[in-house]
Write a structure and sequence with these properties.
about 350 residues; alpha/beta; Rossmann fold; Beta-Lactamase; five-stranded antiparallel β-sheet; about 45% helix; binds guanosine-5'-diphosphate; binds magnesium ion; GTPase activity
């Protein structure tokens, strides 16, 4: 499947030039050699098939990729952490907004944990308390189910021990640190990157997106509601009750199916001007999933009982229309603020 990266979209401000450095939220993807850094980025942000990650070339230097999502992103894919000098690490930490540290669960993770705690120490040293660290405990699908959580918890505990040894457990860095079990072979990698992106959205803005989605969820008597980045399959907002992975996985599968079909039949899923009535649905006997394209990059997915969809379709469509208009207004305002702040 060929998906577009969004490097071609450059923000422009009418009366000034946007400072690209401040406009984009930078995410450093780091970890030891061959832990799976480039694969994670390629699968999520470039639609590479998991089995094709076997052929991704070795990353020799820092590669920056822009991706227009609900937050403009710049992904910094780095060579192995062992190949980066201490000064270079400090420079990178000063310049990014979030760090994804990938640990191969099958590797000798003592080394990875040591490198990670060095990085935390470096971030503390330069006072980069605003940085959010995410640890991807990766290639989880290679473990038998009964060992997954044991190993995951073991790595998490050892990192927490390191944090206590460094006496930084009360810093913002330690408080915001999150661990994600990941694999490119299932939906966990989308779930993990969704969390990375959602952490980059300021809390009050995220609150606005969630309030809108919660009212839509209520007014449509929906079972779940997600706002997705349609190209990267990232959940960028969810109604409060949508926490279970199965509904997320189902939505990702549906989205992938639609994108694959759009590639085959040339549908307007990624057209510049999105028709506001563009939607499609999968109606099963009990439940229905409905998809609406909201903007070129964002789509809404609602899970509704099939009975409700049959009986209340008109009202639901109307509510979505109102939701879309409100969301577009919020998005325009936020983008304007972001541009003004980065001139
Ligand atoms: N089993 C498994 N292998 C993976 C996964 N992600 C990446 N790999 C493999 O790990 C190897 C190194 O990947 P690469 O992305 O080049 O690692 P990097 O050096 O950290 O950028 C490749 O052979 C990938 O196919 C995963 O989730 N599961
Ligand atoms: Mg690489």
């Amino acid at each position: 499947m060929v998906m577009q990266t969004s490097q071609q979209v450059e923000p422009q401000k009418p009366n000034g030039t946007v400072d690209q450095d401040r406009y984009y939220q930078r995410v450093l993807i780091t970890g030891l050699r061959r832990s799976g850094k480039t694969s994670c980025k390629e699968v999520v942000f470039n639609g590479t098939l998991p089995k094709d990650t076997f052929f991704v070339p070795r990353t020799q230097e820092l590669i920056k990729t822009k991706f227009e999502s609900i937050v403009p992103l710049e992904l910094w894919d780095s060579p192995g952490k062992e190949d980066i000098s201490e000064e270079e690490t400090l420079r990178l930490l000063r310049e990014v907004n979030a760090v994804v540290f990938v640990i191969d669960i099958n590797d000798h993770w003592f080394n990875a944990i040591a490198q990670f705690s060095d990085m935390l120490a470096a971030a503390t040293e330069i006072g980069a308390d605003h940085l959010v660290f995410h640890v991807f405990i990766h290639k989880m699908e290679t473990l038998a189910n009964e060992h997954k959580m044991t190993k995951f918890n073991d790595i998490q505990r050892r990192i927490n021990d390191e944090i206590e040894d460094q006496n930084i457990q009360n810093t913002n860095l330690a408080r915001t640190l999150t661990f994600h079990p990941t694999s490119v072979y299932d939906h966990s990698i989308y779930e993990a990157f969704s969390n990375v992106v959602m952490h980059l959205i300021p809390q009050d803005t995220l609150g606005q997106y969630e309030n809108l989605l919660n009212s839509l969820h209520l007014s449509c008597s929906a079972r779940y509601a997600f706002l997705f980045d349609s190209r990267a399959c990232l959940r960028v907002s969810a109604n409060q009750e949508t926490h279970e992975l199965p509904t997320f996985s189902l939505s990702v599968e549906y989205l992938k199916l639609l994108t694959a079909m759009a590639n085959v039949v040339g549908s307007g899923l990624r057209q510049e001007e999105v028709d506001q009535s563009y939607s499609c649905q999968l109606v099963l006997s009990e439940s229905t999933i409905v998809y609406w394209q909201i903007t070129r990059n964002l789509c809404l997915i609602l899970g509704i009982s099939s009975q409700n969809w049959r009986d209340l379709r008109g009202t639901i469509e109307y509510n979505v229309l109102i939701y879309r208009e409100s969301l577009l207004q919020v998005l325009a305002l936020i983008d304007e603020h972001r541009r003004v702040a980065s001139v």
